Amino acid sequence: MAPGVQRLTARNPSPFTFRGTNSYIVGKKTLAVIDPGPQDEAHLQVLLAAIGGRPVSHIFVSHTHRDHSPLARRLAEATGALVAAEGPHRPARPLRVGETNPLDASADMDFSPDIQLPDNALVEGDGWAIRVVHTPGHTANHCAFGLEGTGIAFSADHVMAWSTTIVAPPDGAMADFMASLDRLIARDDRFLLPGHGGPVARPQQFLRGLKTHRKMRERAILKRLFSGDRTISEIVGAIYRDTDPRLHGAAALSVLAHLEDLVARGQVQVEGMLSLDAAFRPA
Asked: pTM to 2 decimals?
């Protein structure tokens, strides 16, 4: 993908992972691995073959979804590397009374890093240095990783060329996601390498486009509310009518994320408890 950067894609394609999870090997002599991927023996063997017996000092994990983090511990045991991440899995906000988390099945609840990475930390290796950029939104513990001195950043699931990122409460939060977009815009990278799909070659233009897309989605939701829609299912049926029906559950959670943000900003009112089944109206 660039000098000293190799990509290997796990064979876990799906509507949510595109062709599979991208793992990256950074360095030439002593290596770092970014996002080792799902608990998959074949992918572990592919990674070890690409490593080729070279030492691995660090395994960086962008976030704790089961398509990114579970293989970290096995790879660490095979290489002696330290696992580095923002922290264990957690929701972006406390669960409300009676609320269950529909996303628990996708979370790697057993993950625990050897090193917890504070925002803006610089981890230096043999011929490489990685800057930690906290980018919550998709998950509360999501990180991007900047490869110092190259203009390259590993954007994981926060920014992807093939699809917009799922922001699904309570694991994710729309206000956090938008703020994290601004953080990446401020970095002014020349190249983004995402967790799924191909690279983003013009990050500034693409990131601003993502912000515009989210604002347009917000306006579409408000328009549906002003037109008389009151439930998330009605809104999804209208504005996601051309989307693969298998993704409508994720779309409903994305609408909920927008509505949580709109309620917090005083633009929308909710009847009763804020949830997927609640009724909403313009403020």
From this structure: 0.94
